[in-house]
Amino acid sequence: MNRRKDNLLAKRREVSPAHLIVSAAAAALVLLLAFAAYCTVRRTAARMSADFYYPFLKTVRGLEDSYADGALLMQNRKTLAAALVKLQKENFELASGRAVLQDLRTENEMLRQTLRLRRKHNFVPVFAEVLTRDPMSWNEQFVIDRGSDSGISEGDPVVTSALIRNMSIPTAVLIGRVKSVSRHTAVVSTLLSGDCRLGVTLAKSRASGILEGTEDAGTGFALLRYLPVKTHMEEGDMAFTNSFSGNNPPGIPVGEIVPWADGAAGREHDHVYLEARVHPFVRPDAVRFVAVYIREKS
Amino acid sequence: MTETLYILFFTAFAVMLELILRSFGLFLPLAALFLFYAATVFGCRAAGAAALLAACGLDFVSGSPHLWSLPAFALVIAFSWFWLNRVESESILLHAVPGALIVPLIWLCRLPFFPDRLLLNVLTQLPDVVTASVVCALLLPLEIYFFDTMNEKLGVDLYTDAKIRLHNEL
């Protein structure tokens, strides 16, 4: 009896190479299938989770806004009246500027039609509020309360209103791009995130490059790369979006050039291109209300 | 059925509260505290399922591409098993110790998944972690007392009876 057991054990210990290869191949296949299933389930789970918690988070934001409005009403009447007058003046200036722009837009479309040029995409803003952030990635991304139901899709540019330089009225400033979308929410990668890349052009030299977040978002700078080597740059040069990719409305301010530690505005990289540091006009952690530019449906 | 609904509801509730606090910049792992409780009362399997739900809620809603919190929650469940099986004392007040330890455990497990700003995260969040540890040291005993009071009325197992159930099984 013991001999039979010993023989059986000895047979089990003798594993043939073919058996090993088949086992390894089966294990690899199982891992591959598990990975594929995880990738598929992950996206669905992400969207479902985001949409499930959306009403609760939105309710909290709504309460916060209500309390903020209530606190506003407790202010002095003179202060409120002065703020109202200031907003009415800004509104009037913006409306006047918009009328001029609308006229230019109509003329541009007529000329493009006459020259038989391809029609440019028009962009429409969808207004949203920041819903939640993760303290671990406070400067790199945040979640807004609008999603695919509002027409938002991945890659759409996200802007906020800010006063830049010596302007008297606020202007739309780019702060990031949409990274992922669910029905009611969207994750926005800011300019300081490595996930956000977009084409920008410098105002003075008209040189174009790619703007992307640095490895350490805590520095507060983004990197502008692939500028031509002979580009002349100065501190304070403004960068704005261009229309090369067709994904962004052109002309939206992004940031300004900040010199490197040695004082130079640009730094050569492998003698192939120049790179520069860009300080975004708006700090991502200070943003509360945003607008997402989506393509106008023709 | 009651236990399933109980776990689902309070997991979702804890995740929702934690998300709200996170959006204000506060780090307080309420979901992990509930998982510690649930693992002791309902067992590791039920707690594991709750951990998966909690990780989906916390990570995906915050915009993370993967479930970075899942390994941390697995460690919390393992810690609850250790506390139940290896620690002799049955005092609820002594649960201030695991309450305080859960916070740095969760934080340290999440840090490696954000390598780009590791040093900055450590320097800026360490004071918050210390504060959160003190708060959770008070919260966990209160949570056990509150849930056990409610469980008694619902006819669900109690945390304080977990050791008795363990001895009976052995």
What does this structure look like?
The complex is a heterodimer of chains A (298) and B (170). With 298 residues, chain A is α+β, with helices and mostly antiparallel strands. Chain A has three domains: 51 residues; 45 residues; 171 residues, Thrombin, subunit H (Beta Barrel), CATH 2.40.10. Helices cover 36% and strands 28% of the residues of chain A. In chain A, the strands form two sheets. In chain A, strands 1-2-5-4-3-13 form a six-stranded antiparallel β-barrel. In chain A, strands 6-7-8-12-10-9 form a six-stranded antiparallel barrel. Chain A is extended, with a radius of gyration of 27 Å. Chain B has 170 residues and is mainly alpha-helical. Chain B has one domain. The interface between A and B is medium-sized, with 33 and 30 residues.
Key structural traits:
heterodimer, A: 298 residues, alpha+beta, Thrombin, subunit H, 3 domains, six-stranded antiparallel β-barrel, six-stranded antiparallel beta barrel, 3 helices, B: 170 residues, mainly alpha, 77% helix, 0% strand, globular
Map the helices and strands.
The complex is a heterodimer of chains A (298) and B (170).
Chain A lengths: L1 H12 L3 H57 L3 H38 L8 E10 L8 E4 L12 E6 L8 E11 L4 E5 L6 E6 L5 E6 L8 E6 L10 E4 L11 E6 L8 E3 L3 E8 L8 E7 L3
Antiparallel strand pairs in A: 1-2, 1-13, 2-5, 3-4, 3-13, 4-5, 6-7, 6-9, 7-8, 8-12, 9-10, 10-12, 11-12
Chain B lengths: L1 H22 L6 H13 L1 H18 L7 H18 L9 H15 L7 H37 L7 H8 L1
Helix pairs in contact in B: 1-2, 1-3, 2-3, 2-4, 2-6, 3-4, 4-5, 5-6
Rg over alpha carbons of chain A: 27 Å
Quaternary organisation of the protein chains: heterodimer
Bin the strand percentage of chain A. 25-35%
What is the tally of helical segments of chain A? 3
Arithmetic mean pLDDT of chain A: 85
Unreliably modeled segments of chain A: none
What is the approximate shape of chain A?
extended
Classified by CATH, the class of the largest domain in chain A is: Mainly Beta
**Shape summary of chain B:** globular
Summarize the biggest pleated sheet of chain B.
none
Q: How many separate structural domains of chain A? A: 3
Helix coverage percent of residues of chain A? 25-40%
What's the story with the biggest beta sheet of chain A? 6 strands, antiparallel, barrel
What is the helix content of chain B? over 70%
Structure summary, number of beta strands of chain B: 0
Order of helices and strands of chain A: HHHEEEEEEEEEEEEE
Kindly report the spatial arrangement of strands forming the biggest sheet of chain A: 1-2-5-4-3-13
